[in-house]
Amino acid sequence: MSEITQAHDRILTVDEAAEKLGISAYTVRQWAREKRLPTIRLGRYWRFRESSLQAWLAAQEERAR
């Protein structure tokens, strides 16, 4: 796995995901509950694979065109 791929496969917290997406942590949690975001559930905590969020964001951009 390349260094670039490893950087994109970081596991993010809610706050980190919110910062990457430019939205509030509250919205990230709400969208995770609604299954609008690709998530990983670890016990009671939401986590987000950075590469999955980037792919999701790219798909959102395509849908907006």
Structural features, described:
The protein has a three-stranded antiparallel β-sheet. The model has no long low-confidence stretch (mean pLDDT 90). The chain contains four helices and three strands; from the N terminus they run αβααββα. Helix content is 58%, strand content 15%. The protein has one domain (3-64): Orthogonal Bundle (Multidrug-efflux Transporter Regulator, Chain: A, Domain 2), CATH 1.10.1660.10. By secondary structure, the chain is an alpha+beta fold. The longest helix has 15 residues, at 50-64. It is globular, with a radius of gyration of 12 Å.
Layout of secondary structure:
Elements: H1 3-8, E1 11-12, H2 14-21, H3 25-33, E2 40-42, E3 45-49, H4 50-64
Antiparallel strand pairs: 1-3, 2-3
Helix pairs in contact: 2-3
